[in-house]
Amino acid sequence: MTLPFTFDLVPPHMTPTKFDNYIIRKLTALNNQFADSQAYEILLAKDDITVYEVYEIKLPEQAGELLHGISIVHSGKVGNEYFMTKGHFHIVLATAEIYYCLKGEGMMVMETPEGESSVAELRPGRILYVPPCWAHRSVNTGNGDLVTLFVYPGNAGHDYGTIETKGFRQLVIERDGIPTIIPNPHWTGE
Ligand code: PAN
Ligand code: ZN
Asked: Does 179 sit behind a cis peptide bond, omega within 30 degrees of 0 on the bond before it?
């Protein structure tokens, strides 16, 4: 590999000039994740729209590497709940992650298997540290794209199943035009 390896971002969408993996997650990929299932079905019946996209550089998935890429969560809502990523724990639970917000407005919803919860604001210029053992989901609370750079250990792996089954304990919804954190009425962890 020629060093340094660069990853240029092109405004206004902040998409990388080159990447190896491109992941696109549409509404169907978030089945059962939004609290208002009726609003979900109505939206899906119109179109299986793209909720978020991820651009990654391919690197060995092993300790010592730092996997990194760009995540773009589009603006939108299902009922009053903002568009968001699926969210996950890392398979190697005690691996952390750095998110650096490049564009937009959002929240990072986080929780531990022991039941601690936290929601932190994402805004341009802010570096958000997701500590080891915390599940994480980014939520777009703004009117434009939420664009973040993420960096995490190569051996982390992704456990989506736990969140798909249990959900997060907290949701971010719009109430009177303001992003509001509420307990998840469908949380099934206990
Ligand atoms: C990120 C996320 C990315 C998409 O790279 O994978 O933002 O979110 P989901 O993986 O929850 O669909 C990351 O946290 N990697 O570990
Ligand atoms: Zn992660």
From this structure: no
